Amino acid sequence: xxxxxxxxxxxxEARQIIRDSRSLYLALGIxxxxxxxxxxxxxxxxxxxxxxxxxxxxxxxSREFLDQLTGSGYFRMxxxxxxxxxxxxxxxxxxxxxxxxxxxxxxxxLKKGRPTTIQALVDGSDSTRAGIAIEYLKVIIATFESxxxxxxxxxxxxxxxVRQPVDPRxxxxxxxxxxxxxxxxxxxxxxxxxxxxxxxxxxxxVRERETGTMEQLISTPVKPNELIVGKLxxxxxxxxxxxxxxxxxxxxxxxVPFRGSLLLMFAASGVFLIGALSIxxxxxxxxxxQFFATQFALLATFLPTFLLSGFVFPIxxxxxxxxxxxxxxxxxxxxxxxxxxxxxxAGIEIIAFPLFMLVVLGFLVSSIAVRKLKxxxx
Length: 378
Hints:
Number of helices: 15
Number of domains: 2
Number of strands: 4
Distance between the termini: 25 Å
Order of helices and strands: HHEHEHEHEHHHHHHHHHH
Structural class: mainly alpha
Helix content: 55-70%
Strand content: 5-15%
Strand order of the largest sheet: 2-1-3-4
């Protein structure tokens, strides 16, 4: 590879990027827009669940239970009613997610130590939100039940002689507040870099063919690998600019903690960029026009990256065949690396395997792109 010919191609591509304002808007504007949209709109936190209550007992015990329910921070009282049909109607109208009915003998059975019932109607049209709401409700009911038992034991003056068989002491590591944004933003960086890198480079060769300048490149002594590397250098630098932008937004806009090494993060992201840019370049080599190149690059990068990278949907919940396919999705490995560096402060020994996979995938894709690029007009 001749460094002078490579740099000459790189300078030519850099001038083309500067002249084409659309490419700059695409490279610098879309990452910020996606970061804002996904960062604020996409949240896996389930709280502020709207609730309606029919309290038939109206006793101090029932009020205490409802105070624990609304005081947990997860449930919001929308209205109280004395009509069962209104609760069902509110669920049908999407006014509430949860409807609770307390029986008229709720406090009486508690005082006598007899089992009582609490009916909960949950809107199951959103299975994820409904499942989490049920788990929250179970915890609150268990806490209320425990408080009632302890109060009864204390009243009977036997609390001091009762030992709790299990004393759970749970410590949450790396994300103790369970804020989904801390998990989403590192993954979002990989999504943005993958899509933008592939979209930008998907137009490099096909644009040369459509504008008629491919003949000039063919008449030069530039080799295919020099042409690829020279064209990718400006986009590689542009990709790092995007990386710095989204990192700063994550740090100062979304306040996501960063506990690892910046140098390690930028190094791993650089390896990922090589593969992502090579994917876009490969699309540009095989595409017949710019429209097809753009659409195919978006389809080949965004959908697999969003669905199969573990960004939103856990890979462990996927079928075994799909789990195997996810290993060829570069974003899966970068998301693993970024989350480990961001939240755990992981070193090179922790991210060695996903980093190795990025190297392998980048080498394979770039090799295929070099072989596909032929210095002749088809």
